[in-house]
Design brief:
This protein has 180 residues and is mainly beta. The longest helix has 9 residues. Helices cover 8% and strands 42% of the residues. Strand 1 and strand 2 form a beta hairpin. The protein has a six-stranded antiparallel sheet with strand order 1-2-10-7-12-5, with no helix packed on it. Strands 9-8-11-6-13 form a five-stranded antiparallel sheet. Strands 3-4 form a two-stranded antiparallel ribbon. Belongs to the dTDP-4-dehydrorhamnose 3,5-epimerase family. GO terms for molecular function: dTDP-4-dehydrorhamnose 3,5-epimerase activity. It comes from Shewanella mangrovisoli. Keywords: Isomerase. Homodimer.
Length: 180
């Protein structure tokens, strides 16, 4: 497995080694010791991942930008089917990189995984017909503690790969949206 740094030092991309032949492929998607070492080697706090969550979304669905305050979750995001544009936004008030964001295409084909640290908002936009996404989290999902930022906030100016269409939003995400 390989750890790739992004424009934001704490947001990392993990690329597993894939072994394939005419029968299919095999890859190791997670190893706690490698994950912890990758964080420690960059001066970051090593964290344990305690819960897997799974979602399926159709094309043009935009999820997030979600975050938890009392129980901030770090998330290792992986796509099992399809492709998404995955986004991490630094919303930690005292951070030197507050308001900065990183986005990457994650897909079942490229096998990339993105680490979204605790204190960052997370969202994604579905590029394929549908996408199956697994989030491996550092804390348990606490729906009463979850907040949503406007996906189209001028403060963050995320360059979503929309092709002249408006995204499909959940009711909760739509209430957080601002006009473009």
């Amino acid at each position: 497995m390989k750890c790739i740094e992004t424009e934001l030092a704490e947001v990392l991309v993990f690329e597993p080694q894939v072994f394939s032949d005419e029968r299919g492929f095999f890859m190791e998607t997670f190893r706690q010791s490698f994950f912890s070492e990758s964080l420690k080697n960059r001066g970051l706090k090593a964290l344990d991942l305690v819960q897997d969550n799974f979602s399926r979304s159709q094309q043009h669905v935009l999820r997030g930008l979600h975050y938890q305050c009392k129980h901030p979750q770090g998330k290792l995001v992986r796509v099992c089917t399809g492709s998404i544009f995955d986004v991490a936004v630094d919303i930690r008030p005292q951070s030197k990189t507050y308001g900065k964001w990183v986005g990457r295409v994650l897909s079942a084909d490229n096998h990339l995984q993105m680490w979204i640290p605790p204190g960052f908002a997370h969202g994604f936009y579905v590029l394929s017909e549908y996408a199956d996404v697994i989030y491996r989290c550092t804390d348990y999902y606490a729906p009463d503690d979850e907040y949503v930022l406007a996906w189209n906030s001028a403060e963050f100016a995320i360059d979503w790969p929309l092709r002249n269409e408006l995204p499909i939003l959940s009711e909760r995400d739509a209430k957080a949206a601002v006009s473009t």
